[in-house]
Structures are given as structure tokens and as C-alpha cells.
Amino acid sequence: MITVSNISLQYGKRILFDDVNLKFTNGNCYGVIGANGAGKSTFLKILSGEIDASGGKVNIEPGKRMAVLKQDHFEYEEETVLNTVMMGHKEMYDIMVEKNAIYMDPDASDADGLKAAELENTYGEMGGWEAESNAAELLSNMGVAEMHHYKTLKELNGPQKVKVLLAQALFGEPDILLLDEPTNDLDAETATWLSDFLAEFKNLVIVVSHDRYFLDMVCTHMVDVDFKQINIFSGNYTFWYESSQLMAQQMANKNKKMEQKRAEMMEFIQRFSANASKSKQATSRKKALEKLSLEDIKPSTRKYPFIHFQPERSIGDQILKVEGLSAKDDAGQVLFSNVSFTMNKGDKIALLSQESAAITSFYEILSGNAKPDAGTIEWGQTITKDYLPNENSAFFTEGQNLELMDWLRQYSDDKDEQFVRGFLGRMLFSGEEVYKKSGVLSGGEKVRCMLSKIMLNNPNFLLLDEPTNHLDLESITALNNALRDFPGSLIMTSHDHQLLDTACNRIVEISPNGTIDQLMIFDEFIRSDKVKGLKEELYRVTA
Fold this sequence. Notes:
This protein is α/β, with parallel strands linked by helices. The chain has helices at residues 40-48, 81-86, 90-104, 110-125, 131-141, 158-170, 188-200, 212-218, 237-252, 258-275, 282-290, 356-366, 394-397, 404-409, 417-426, 443-457, 473-485, 497-503, 522-527, 529-538; strands at residues 2-11, 14-24, 29-34, 55-60, 66-68, 176-180, 204-208, 221-226, 229-234, 320-328, 334-343, 348-352, 374-379, 385-388, 461-465, 489-493, 506-511, 514-518. The protein has a six-stranded mixed β-sheet, sandwiched between helices. It has a six-stranded mixed β-sheet with strand order 14-15-16-12-17-18, with helices on both faces. Strands 2-1-4 form a three-stranded antiparallel β-sheet, with no helix packed on it.
């Protein structure tokens, strides 16, 4: 259990949160949400003791071991992968190092021998004898092959290091687990495995994440950092979001009688409680929701952008035909080869690959910015496409001194100020913000500008390479709704499970050895035994 008493945090005159009192209890998973810059990660650092609060205190139940997901990917460069994972249980690892040092000392005394015996006993009681095999199993489950277990971390690539550090945090079943964006840079299979692992985890978990599917899968409670306060609500993210939206609608409609409001909210709670039976933590969620009172639900004060893609013309029967497409990188390494597919009306494709460079190259070729090494692309005559690249800095570097109004105006046929301001307003740029220089925008602001640009163009085909990067949960939710309702076609890549699952109906995975093309939703794709067999065949040559 963790008790937070009168916690405050202030930087100069800026107050992040004030007089926070919370209790986190064992057996629950708490998802911390809030707008970008609200202080979510900072709050986790206060809980872990990494930084001090301006006021108040954090009390952790005595004897409880806390594990924290490390963000420094270079901290363990000289350590082996297995040792790095076992370091997650610091006390046990330190005992292992100490006893091994005695055994390696040729001048060890009898007293040292007795000390080693005591350490061996303690080590065994802590599960030390199974430590290496448990660490190896954890790594294998996360997709880190056994051939990498005795390598040093500096020999691994970025995604592999992320998995090792995550395994370190999970190792040894800590009593308290603090995770800051644990699904970042994880492939879909590992992220799904982590969701399943945490859903069965019996101890206390507190996690910051922008992944709504992940929050829905693992969380029993949401911790909302909003307007200098932090409040805990029962239920997962979808329940928090839908109940908050419903309450806000009811509060806005002042003509409704209070009893009618109460009846509608209680009906909603009962319906969601019943649906919880499908989840991994059904029992605890259902009990929590059954105890929920109307007064426990509050509308969120955060704003959601208005995203709506309305094609200027309807899409025809001929959309896109890709035939034998292949590409190499500058070093001559094959990124993908012999990619062939034809898009049909209603298709919305989730594009996957084990290499991000292959994804970017594929989009650059589809958009016409690059040429393939082999193969052809044939677009339908009715297609008007627009492209949101993963790296968008070029759009803002050239016009870095332009105010946002002028930046967006250059992409609009209608130059009227009110017309252009309206599209910026949809993306929450209001008042004086429209005069900000485009060169000083944050990553999230740049993506919102790019989405405004796309809405102005009214395309009927979208190419989207990681469109949720840098966006907060509110913007991700609004984008998800817009893409789900988009009447045109699209090809999209994203690490957001729920976005792909709800907005796409077809999966295409490209590789140096060919393509997997399946008409199914994303969740079915990553859990399908048939697809696993296809992947084993596809990547056998690479392995």
C-alpha cells in the first residue's frame, strides 16, 4: 500500500498539483492520465523517491519491494542481459555478487566461508536458485531470443534494450510496480503479452500510458491529473472517458431533472459493470463498479480537438494496386520485397513491419516522394490522397518564422482569416495561439497542425505513419473517432492498439522475404495461430 498525504509540487510560480491525498491499495492497477505537461511522470518520480515533493509525504508499507521501469537505456551498457534483468531484485542480486566474490577470493578466511554459507541460505530463501532461469523465461516471453541473453546491453538494438529494462522491472514479482509508458517502442506481440501479464499480476501497479487498449486491459482504477488536483476513479480508461463525457453532457443540459440524470448514469454504470465480465480482472472491476456512486463520477475539464475528415469526392472502385514492390536502404540492405496487394472499396489497412525504416520507405514510395527498386504502383483516377509522415520537421523548418495562421494558410485555397482560424480552432489553437511561430511548436502541436492541413485538403485516401506520436490521450481519442468514421480508404501504421483495432479491417505486414495480407482486425491478427505460422515461415530465412 502507498499513502500520499498533502503532496504538493511547485516549480517557481507554476503549481503542478496541490494538497493531494490518495491511497493506492494492493491488488489494483492504477492508470495515471492527464494532459501533456500535467505532471504524470513527475508524480511517479515522487512515489519512487527519485525526486522530492514541495510539500507533504509518501508512505510505503514497510517491507514492500518497489520496482521502477528505468528510462536510461545506456545505464547498463557493460552488463550482460541476464544480469541486468536480475538486478531488478537489487537485494537478491547484491547477495549473489557478495557470495560469489567470497568464492572467487583465494585468501578467503573461515569467517568468510561462514558468511558465504549464511548468504547462500538467504539467497535460496529469496528464490535465488531459480533467478537465472526465471529471468531467461521472462526475456523469452518478451521476444528476446536466448542467443542474446549473455550479450552485453551495448550489443543490442533500441527495442531489445527496452524489453530488457522492462523485464528488469517485472523480475521477481515486486510488491509495487511503477511503469512510465511501458508500451513505448514495444512491438504489438510484446505489448499484448505485457497486457496479459499485468492483468494477472496480483500486486500493486501504477502506470502512466497513452495506450488506451493497454489501460483498458490492465487497469482497475484511473488516476486523473487535472487542474492541479489528482483524483482516483474506479474502472478502466473507457469507463472513465464515457462516464465523464456523459456527465458533462448532462451538466450542460440544465433542463434535465436530477432524477432522470441519476437514472441514466446508474443504468450506464450497471451496463459497463456487466461488460467487465469479459476482462481479465473481471471480479475486482465488477465489485468496484457496483460500489460506485453517482457522486464519484466527475466530468473531465480537458478539451478534445474536433477532427473530421470529409472527402471532397467519393472514392471509386479502382483504389490502389501494388505489384511486386521492393526497396533497399542506402547500404543495400533489403527493406521489403515483392509486396503485392489490391485495395478494395471499404478497405482500411494497418501496415506493419519489424523494421521502422521499411515502413517509412514504403510510405515515401506510395506518396511519390521516392522511387522503388522494383515494382509498380497504380492509383485509381478518383483518388485524392494526403500523407502524414512520421517525421514532419521539414514542414516547419522552412517556414519556422511563419505564424500558425500564415503557415496553415499556405495550404488553403480559401485564404480568409476566419476560415483558416476555424481549422486551427478545431485543433485547440485559439485566441493569441494562432500567432505563435511555427518554429517553436512542440511535437504534439506540430501533429495537430498537420492534421489541420489534411482536413483542409479533403482527401479520400489517407497515408498515416504513426499519427498518434506526441499526441495526448484527448487528441488520440478524437483522431481514433475520426478515422473510424472516415468514409474513404487509408493505410496506417501506429503503436496504438485500439486505433488499429477499431479503424482498420485489413492487415498487411511487409518484410524482406515477402508479405502477409489478412482481412481481419488487428487484435485477431496478433493473437491468431494461423498468422503466427505465417510469420514463422516468413521470417525463417532472416533468422
